[in-house]
Amino acid sequence: MSEPIDIATPRRTREILEKYDLNVKKSLGQNFIIDTNILKNIVAAGDVDEETTVIEIGPGIGALTEQIAKSAKEVFAFEIDDRLLPVLDETLSDYSNVTIFHQDILEVDFEKFQTEYLKESSRIVVIANLPYYITTPIIMHLLSSSLPVETMVLMMQKEVASRLEAQPSTKAYGSLSIAIQYYTEVEIAFTVPKTVFMPQPNVESAVIRLNVRETPAVQVKDETLLAKIVRASFVQRRKTIWNNLRRALDNKEQEETLRAAFASADIDPSRRGESLTIQEFGALADALVAFELTDFT
Fold first, then answer.
1. What's the pLDDT tens digit per position in 185-220?
2. CA distances to 71, 212, 239 from 55, in Å
3. Rounded to whole angstroms, how far apart are CA atoms 111 and 252?
4. Of 80, 190, 239, 267, which sits 20 to 30 A from 88 (CA to CA)?
5. Cβ-proximal residues to 213 (8 Å cutoff; 6+ apart), any chain
6. What is the pLDDT of residues 93-128, one digit of tens each?
7. What is the reported pLDDT for 2?
8. CA-angle at 290, arms to 272 and 181, nearest 5°
9. φ and ψ at 52, to 5 degrees?
10. What is the CA radius of gyration of the chain?
């Protein structure tokens, strides 16, 4: 019996879309990959093997899922578009290690999911071709969940990928860079040309690998406060960190205390937020806690 033709070819993708009368939903960021080599490279970036359990977000018509299933122990794929469920039943029928869930990944109860499905999982990797409009909420949802994920391999808009890996004193560096790097070590695995998609998107893409840290990049006394001051520091990028934090301070009578916290953390308040490392933001957050100055909007 001959091997089935990979889903990720122009001809087979067209056949599937026509058979099920599928129109691409721009609202869901749907662009189908038609190059098997790209998909194999994504799987390789996650070091997926027979000991790996993969959580996939947005399997679409199953092109990436198929390549993951060939290497992984098990694949749990979450698809929000109910039109694609019968498609996946057909295209992935040869793979007994694939389970499809018709659910929005942002609404998954991960504690329950872990108890029911991940008891036998020794290594968990997340792989996804993320819709550009919802990349950040999905990543932060996963990182703040209870899932014991080792690595995430995510395809996304190249511009967003650049922001995730950006370093201090660069144009792309901002609160998103810090939020992601607080939890993970970031690397861009490779870029993806527009020509491997059907239909072709208007933006360039990249595959990024996030290796989840065992402990955050910096230890702080108050993570919520750290997040607040990081966000506030980039509200107006051209302003100094002093001006941004003073504006975010609920009680303006505490400006002298704020100045003392800067001095204690050995940070020049005339610097811009984009020049501070995660470690410096951590030191400032702890100094603010020490001075009991935590009321920021």
1. 999 999 999 999 988 888 899 999 999 999 999 999
2. 13, 15, 41
3. 42
4. 190
5. 183, 184, 185
6. 999 999 999 999 999 999 999 999 999 999 999 999
7. 47
8. 45
9. -100, 130
10. 22
The Cα-based distances of 35 to 63, 196, 232, 255 in angstroms read 9, 6, 42, 57
- Whether the predicted pLDDT of 91 surpasses 60: yes
End-to-end C-alpha distance for the chain, whole angstroms? 65
pLDDT at 1 (0 to 100): 38
- What is the token pair recorded at 269? 């308040």
Give the residue ranges of DSSP H helices in the chain. Answer: 10-19, 36-45, 63-69, 85-91, 110-117, 135-143, 158-165, 175-183, 223-233, 241-248, 255-264, 278-290
Residue at 141: amino acid letter = H
Structure tokens at 150: 């080792």
What whole-number distance in Å separates Cα of residue 192 and Cα of residue 201? 11
Q: Which token pair is 189? A: 């695995």
Measured in degrees and rounded to the nearest 5, phi and psi for residue 196 equal -90, 5
- The CA distance from 30 to 178, in Å, is 28
Those residues whose C-beta lies under 8 Å from the C-beta of residue 281, and which sit 6 or more positions away, are: 178, 218, 226, 229, 230, 233
For 218, the token pair is 């910096």
Q: What are the backbone dihedrals phi and psi of residue 278, each rounded to the nearest 5 degrees, phi first?
A: -60, -40
Q: Mean pLDDT, to the nearest integer, of 43-57?
A: 98
Tokens 């993708």, located at residue: 13
Q: Exposed, middle or buried: residue 264 (CB in 10 Å: 0-12, 13-18, 19+)? A: middle
Nearest Cα neighbor of 78 from 92, 95, 98, 57 is 57
Strand order, beta sheet including 74-79 = 98-102, 74-79, 52-57, 123-129, 151-157, 205-212, 184-192
Torsions phi, psi of 64, nearest 5? -75, -40
Is the CB of residue 258 less than 8 Å from the CB of residue 225?
Answer: no
